[in-house]
């Protein structure tokens, strides 16, 4: 690993935990870019193709899987598919930017296996009641869907130990600073700094 390789920052958390807002906080840092996911779910009224998601048919998605186009992919709630195209990594490398992935627990495990130097952040809601309130306030889900999301949230949170960092999103301003600090600190890890350190050492004759 070196500074020339993109730092890959993974952000996961239960639906409604506020991870998209925290991803936006990381993207406020210079030198970062979002990996735009591909999904088979239909766009919501407020969504446009290519901003957070590329919306594709299930047939297109399966073709991409067959070609090995994805860095990670998973089926969520047994219906819609989501995946991160490998081209996002190539684009980050070409632009010399850090790559931010907003993906679920399944996807995070896949990326960690392929890119061990990636940094995974888990976003935790302060309580079940708080998470339920946030999901209901969005007004997008039926009662059955809300129950499924809450059950899934518990299952996802049991995977917290596979992450490098965890933040409790009970104060957006503070939690935003925390995820930015994690991103900035991750840039300074010794394996990423090694090439630069060796260059500086040459000036000391070592």
Overall geometric form? globular
Give the number of DSSP strands.
Answer: 9
Biggest β-sheet, characterized? Answer: 5 strands, parallel
Q: Tell me the helix content.
A: 40-55%
SS strand fraction: 15-25%
**Side-by-side strand order of the widest sheet:** 2-7-1-8-9
Low-confidence stretches: none
Summarize model confidence as the mean pLDDT: 92
**CATH level-3 fold name of the domain at 8-35 and 96-203:** Rossmann fold
Round the Cα radius of gyration to an integer and report it: 18 Å
- Superfamily (CATH H level) name of the domain at 8-35 and 96-203: P-loop containing nucleotide triphosphate hydrolases
Run of helices and strands: EHEEEHEEHEHEHHEHH
In short:
The protein has 206 residues and is of the alpha/beta class. The protein has 8 helices and 9 strands.
What does this structure look like?
The protein is α/β, with parallel strands linked by helices and 206 residues long. It has a domain at 8-35 and 96-203: P-loop containing nucleotide triphosphate hydrolases (Rossmann fold, 3-Layer(aba) Sandwich). 45% of the residues lie in helices and 20% in strands. The chain contains eight helices and nine strands. It has helices at residues 19-27, 58-66, 87-95, 105-114, 128-138, 143-157, 172-187, 190-203; strands spanning 8-12, 32-34, 37-39, 53-55, 70-76, 80-85, 98-102, 119-124, 165-168. Strands 2-7-1-8-9 form a five-stranded parallel beta sheet, with helices on both faces. The protein has a four-stranded mixed beta sheet with strand order 4-3-6-5. A hairpin with a 3-residue loop joins strand 5 and strand 6 (80-85). Helix 1 crosses helix 7. The longest helix has 16 residues, at 172-187. The chain is globular and about 70 Å long. It starts with 7 loop residues before the first strand and ends with a helix.
